[in-house]
Amino acid sequence: MKKIISAILAGAVMCTSAVALAGCGGSKTESKTESTTAASSAASDKATADTPEKGANGELHMATNAFFEPYEYYENEKIVGIDAEIAEAICDKLGYTLVIDDMDFDSIITAVQSGKADFGMAGMTVTEERKQAIDFTDTYTNAIQVIIVKEGSDKVTKIDDLNTASIGVQMGTTGDIYVTDLEKDGAAVERFNKGADAVLALSQGKVDAVVIDNEPAKAFVAQNEGLKILEEPFENEEYAICVAKGSDLTAKINAALKELKSEGKVDEIINKYIKA
Description:
five-stranded mixed β-sheet, disordered N terminus
């Protein structure tokens, strides 16, 4: 009987020890699982933080009209220019891949509003009218609107002559906005999808003058004999990047722009395309 009781007590002790060991083992397993889950969660959070939120595969889509040399134009089927390079530099700073979408100028704001494009950059002037539809970043350069006429023309020799002239402009540009007011005074405005088409109409005598940005104007005059730019500037303006209303991209782009300006990169890009 004593042996039986001793055997029973020994078995009970072993069982208790096994349970205790099992309990510790379970605790270790549970602790390890919790640790692994926490680590996975932290890694997931880090990956999410490191991955750009905008666009597929970390892309940012820039809407432009690539017929506005030297700001954006085609070279060997690739869109290059001041805006293209500044946009590339901004995307590099923010960790995105830049994708440029070419479209009519007057479609850019709509593309940004609808989310089809993340931002618009096309030698776009900051105006109060445009601010009602989209937000602007800080400006990155100043520009001048000028008047192109035929050499020897006595129809338009100064700004006031535009009141009774026929004027060619690129649709949706600030040149278009500015000359719209002149229509009330008797000016006839012809609107074109491309600045080049407006200049062609001038060369063919279909319009008396073209109002456009100074830098593209210089390129057009160099490419087309018999044209000149009037010395008197038509309007001074500032260029900026347009983004959707309330977008968090505005602050991000501004931060990148600030760095690029302080590094001298913005001036470097502009000077590459516009010689003093």
